[in-house]
Model the fold of this input.
Amino acid sequence: MREDVIGRANVEDTPELEAYYRDLERYEAGALWTVANKIEPWQPKSQSVPVLWRYDDLRSHVLRSVELVSPEKAGRRVIYLNNPGRREVSAAVGWLYSGLQVMNPGEVASAHAHSASALRFIMEGRGAYTIVDGHKMPLGANDFVLTPNGTWHEHGVEASGLPCIWQDGLDIPFVNAMEANFYAVHPDLSQAVAYPVDDTTHAWGAPGLRPAGDKWSKQYSPLFKYQWGPTYEALSKYAKSTAGSPFDGVMMNYVNPVTGGPVMQTIGATMQMLRAGERTKAHRHTGSFIYQVAKGKGYSIIDGKRFDWKERDIFCVPSWSWHEHGNASNSEDACLFSFNDMPVIGTLGLYREEAFGDNDGYQLN
Amino acid sequence: MREDVIGRANVEDTPELEAYYRDLERYEAGALWTVANKIEPWQPKSQSVPVLWRYDDLRSHVLRSVELVSPEKAGRRVIYLNNPGRREVSAAVGWLYSGLQVMNPGEVASAHAHSASALRFIMEGRGAYTIVDGHKMPLGANDFVLTPNGTWHEHGVEASGLPCIWQDGLDIPFVNAMEANFYAVHPDLSQAVAYPVDDTTHAWGAPGLRPAGDKWSKQYSPLFKYQWGPTYEALSKYAKSTAGSPFDGVMMNYVNPVTGGPVMQTIGATMQMLRAGERTKAHRHTGSFIYQVAKGKGYSIIDGKRFDWKERDIFCVPSWSWHEHGNASNSEDACLFSFNDMPVIGTLGLYREEAFGDNDGYQLN
Amino acid sequence: MREDVIGRANVEDTPELEAYYRDLERYEAGALWTVANKIEPWQPKSQSVPVLWRYDDLRSHVLRSVELVSPEKAGRRVIYLNNPGRREVSAAVGWLYSGLQVMNPGEVASAHAHSASALRFIMEGRGAYTIVDGHKMPLGANDFVLTPNGTWHEHGVEASGLPCIWQDGLDIPFVNAMEANFYAVHPDLSQAVAYPVDDTTHAWGAPGLRPAGDKWSKQYSPLFKYQWGPTYEALSKYAKSTAGSPFDGVMMNYVNPVTGGPVMQTIGATMQMLRAGERTKAHRHTGSFIYQVAKGKGYSIIDGKRFDWKERDIFCVPSWSWHEHGNASNSEDACLFSFNDMPVIGTLGLYREEAFGDNDGYQLN
Amino acid sequence: MREDVIGRANVEDTPELEAYYRDLERYEAGALWTVANKIEPWQPKSQSVPVLWRYDDLRSHVLRSVELVSPEKAGRRVIYLNNPGRREVSAAVGWLYSGLQVMNPGEVASAHAHSASALRFIMEGRGAYTIVDGHKMPLGANDFVLTPNGTWHEHGVEASGLPCIWQDGLDIPFVNAMEANFYAVHPDLSQAVAYPVDDTTHAWGAPGLRPAGDKWSKQYSPLFKYQWGPTYEALSKYAKSTAGSPFDGVMMNYVNPVTGGPVMQTIGATMQMLRAGERTKAHRHTGSFIYQVAKGKGYSIIDGKRFDWKERDIFCVPSWSWHEHGNASNSEDACLFSFNDMPVIGTLGLYREEAFGDNDGYQLN
Done:
């Protein structure tokens, strides 16, 4: 790891030094210059690699799990996404976990709570619902729902519904890494529904308005459910008045209406629209991202490699990786849902961004 | 002003003291005990009185002003509301100004800016619009629009429209009292429309979402227009899941989506629904309020006096006045728009509230 | 009030309009154009005038009050400062009240609380103390102490002390104007000392450190006392490393250590040093200021008028008045204590500042 | 990893499932229930172990490095502390790096910048200084200095000084883990001293005061140096008025005077005093801590194991480890400096704390 650059470690091994290093080991110590260039890289090099998970590949395996295990035995019946560079911590990218969960009509998972923050993005089915601290919310395709850190939560599918599949997103690897993860099973295994169905959506899901008497002191959004209908309408309206980002098209962040900031303290989420025929330019920035294609078809070029995607496919962009997106249709818009660790990166002062300068901003691939 | 209570001033005038007081006057000084009980009251006693301004009374006079003065001569053609206790500062209540402005199709007022914060609530007509710092917004009945402190703004009615009347609300008296009011006429007398019509509504008027790349550093809301349609829908949904406030029924605050706080630094605004047959209990609190009836009919009892109102009527509730509201209909809801100085009161630590304890919470009247 | 400027009201009285105005009065209304130019001035014109209160003039009168009234009868034995333009609201400038309070050894004032925020700056004597919510603090000359809004507080002089005089500063006129002032006499007339003497100074008066477990949720500073010794030392050190402000010399704000912001929500306070021979340039800004000369002698030029001052003199600078300061000594520094309504002005977005452009920045006088 | 508890994964391997698992691997996926109990522990189990690094052991080795490598070759001449459980990431505990750096009189390290936040705590010597973004600060024993993320910084020892040793603390492992570390060598290899020596200490190191015109918008403290003298005085004063924490004695946090919050966004620092004879009770909480003994001698019991320490010794407490401290002297106080990742833990909502309930709060050891 020697570098012949002033200001960097460049020490040749000698017998005397090697003896010295062994001495240091006895005292749980080492010489910084033997690791300095490794632990202080010029710029980040992610351990994660870009991956595309095709729904056509995964769906049948997800459905097969229904026959293979019960929710009771499995805890939760989930197929999780394993980044080749992050298998050790069961992450899909960086410190973010993701998986596909499936439930049959009438099934319900036991209620639990954990320090990790969690979200769900509904992929297919009918009759899914989530209960968060007593607030029950029915969920449909492309709905986005939070189960924030510390909340009791459980999922189910109404007996009258259809088999449901959704994507889970959590920061379990991060909270584990921070050595701060706690887990609890609800003493009654399931919660009572303590409020009118969809009450937090009714109270907090209005544009430019908030309930007057409702004091909310939690650090996450009181709006737990973000429905697809109003979200797509919002993007469509915003598209009428904005040129959009050169890197991301028409992009909106899901926010905590109490603060205007991210929905949870450790996970942010975004929906973006690539207009018909739109192709964005490449940039890179710190932070790890997992995308699900909510609508349409297209492709992303990540660190020079092209990934073609269509509705329900999932892919990831590691930290500091070049990425650009294209809509493959010239008549229909395409929409990408994504979640990320940007609240961590931003809050802690670790955000940095760079535009791709060559080739008019487009990577070669 | 003597009070025979320990801890209060209770000094009898004597010739010696009177001579002493005259001495002090020569040095621009006085004896505190001669004014202490007056300037330190046990509780607030507002200089304002409750007033109901009936639209039936005012409308014809407002329309008559069209014949009497031109916008050019008048600056703005407005009939303002004069609280009998606040004539000196031209306030409708406390330090809040309000007036009814009228414009004919094709008319446009000259663009200006001031340190006072302003808002408009549309009462009738067709084709009204406001331009704020280059952002143009068409306005319909019950739409609420901001023209924040320091912004260039102007109002007009499209040539194809109908005569329009709206209520203005400003904190001119307050900013004057703070000796901080500046006024400027736009150098070109009118602004260019610099953005797509309704662009801030498209960008910031979505529930639970905000434009991803848009950094907003101003201290007022980037959402300038709050439309009646979504506002009424929001109240109707919220009504399904809340018991409501005992004092205010189903109430929502208009908010700055960037902060979740008030729309401007000195003026807050609220829309509340009194459900069919609803009658609220009385409370009082610091802060001055001006209401406009957006929908329905009913009454308010303010410091023991009943005021019957219907759509478009305006009334005020002075600081620390008991007040309660009733919907006169058993089948239709009623909606009250209001604006207030609560951001000032709250930010500065001056809020206090009290429920009416007697008679099961209802004032006698 | 007519102005022949486009965008300003310029309507001639006619018999028809006069009749119209009378009609409007019947409905508690008026025509805006009759008052618009008055209530929307081009820039602020303060109702206050600059005043210098010489301690040589006031001291004997203050001491004489000891013979004339008892604290029991007077409530508090205070000579207050009366700005000729603000007699109606008993203000020394703008909405700020100030007075000189005197107490003999062994005297104690009854404990009370009010919504107004208060401060004290000690002028002379020995043995003075203040108790705030059970925290007792001995006070010496040039010490600055807070009795924030809503706190129980009382003052006294130890029996072993000397007669003490201090300056009171409050926002009573402002809180009255906001119709939000409440007053209460302590049920026991005096408080028990519930903590070690000077405990908040010990906990919160350290540079760059705060007590680790102490959660402070009040909106005012937990550090109630700011001692002269460390304050003068701080200014002296800062003077070594700063060029200082062209308008104010070496100036530091007293702050709430929990937030780095002003000591109370409605009143800010400042200590500034004019170095030997220093003469500052003129500027003006919104906000009202009351100064006390803590050390040295010099002069201030306020709106073109020169005021010569020395230690213990008090003077005021009204909002938007030009002002500049000079140290009359070429060998000793001079220090000015001041308090102001800048937290109100700043929090509400009403601050504006302008440098004096002519004559190299110095007013003629 | 099976657990026979409802709500936990408890699936037996079968040939069919094993085949299924192999299928999933082909698609970069896995079955959650095979890893769920591992990645969702009931409570944190730190990878770090408690370690005591005795200065008597390390000092000679640190000094020997002066002969073995030059600062030019080494980059920085540092012996770093290697937690047996965290060798892979060169951390002393959790995600925190620490090392002992030595410099001879006249030596100077090249200036650089990195995304990691850094601090120094001076152990011995004379003439040490640090330059941060052009601000030079002389440093003595027990002084604490910041070199925040993104700042240019360099260290040196005056030619007239003595060999200096200090402890470095950084979050390099954390910023690496977040894949957000950037490193740059200063183009001139050293900075010009652009301000008066100690200027930020003069401006920001005062109790309850801040420079009036100095707007500071960075997210870290503008006060870079916290001197031992005022720090020890602060603790001594605070000790007079507080009972102290049952777990930590008399403890104060170093703070950013602009916000009252932690000195940097990712690293907090604390100085605590154990009074003569004081023995604290045990608690545990999330967050990783590295201590240096600034004064005195005593012991800490960490997860049941006793570590005896004296001045200059260093030890660590891993996340969620029980710990308690004792002063071994009945006549002298002992002081512990520590730094930690609490700003990360706290900002992200991951703090949890628990008192040791048995044995009157004391661990057996």
Remarks:
- Residues 236 and 273 of chain B are 8 Å apart (CA to CA).
- Chain B is about 20% helix and 35% strand.
- Chain B has two domains: 1-42, 52-361.
